[in-house]
Amino acid sequence: MHLLFLLRLQHVELPAEIVGPEEIKHVSVLKATGLVEAEIAPAIDPSGKFNMARTAIVTAITDDGIAEIMKLRTERMRPATTWRAARRRRKLCIRCGQPNAPVCSCCPAPEPESSAPI
């Protein structure tokens, strides 16, 4: 998810103020990994209590961040994507349309034709 947020950041005019709690977490991880330059409010207030940062300002995407974006763009299909695609291509029952090919458990199996001579 953090890398998806990085992909979104490339289309935003920087510096950008980030206010959503989940997005601030993404910024924090991206900053810690050196993919963006950002200013995040301190997590500890003057009394020593932990506070969740309320804003973050992303000032730039670093060279490493740009390299990561390029890697994501040129990367071949990942296994999760392949798995999702395979689920979509799942065959349907030829009788009722349920997703258990070629015949699902809700339909009785066809009776074999007898090959007795007439």
Walk me through this protein's architecture.
By secondary structure, the chain is of the alpha+beta class. 36% of the residues lie in helices and 12% in strands. The protein is built from 4 helices and 3 strands; from the N terminus they run αβαββαα. It has a 3-stranded antiparallel β-sheet. The protein is elongated, with a radius of gyration of 26 Å.
Looking at this protein, list some descriptive labels.
3-stranded antiparallel β-sheet; single chain; 4 helices; alpha+beta; 118 residues
DSSP helix count?
Answer: 4
Poorly predicted runs of 5 or more residues: none
Strand content: 5-15%
Rounded to the nearest angstrom, the distance between the terminal CA atoms is 68 Å
The computed structural class is alpha+beta
Principal-axes geometry comes out as: elongated
How much is the average pLDDT? 77
- Describe the main β-sheet briefly: 3 strands, antiparallel
Give the spatial strand order of the biggest sheet. 1-3-2
Level of helix content?
25-40%
Order of helices and strands: HEHEEHH
